[in-house]
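Sample pair:
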Amino acid sequence: MKTARGSAVRVSRDVPRFRNRRQHTRAHADCRLMYSAEAGCRDVLMGDGTATDLSHHGLGVHGTVPVRRGTEVTLFLYLPDGQDPLLIMESRVTWTSGHRFGVEITKMNLRERNRLHYFLSLNPKASA
């Protein structure tokens, strides 16, 4: 324990910083992505980044442009399978912390959802 001018400073390592409210387990991922959203009347927000974790129902993102909680975003996820990016047309930002944020997938077409399920089933490091 360090002291500064007579007062003790203690950091508890037992208490998590954030309570995990996820309904589905996510696993580590490292996939490039691009995202876009409406940012006002005629403005479009665009950013790129990395998916840091991934599941059938959501993902964690470290992006170049911060977003707000509740924002509806479109994602282009570059899976390492060499195909065109996986398109997630409808998703919602559920939490933010600077340039990091969590996204819940609200709707995907069947082809894209099957592709995501297949990718997760073949990649133990990125399976839910």
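Confidence is low (pLDDT under 50) at residues 1-19.
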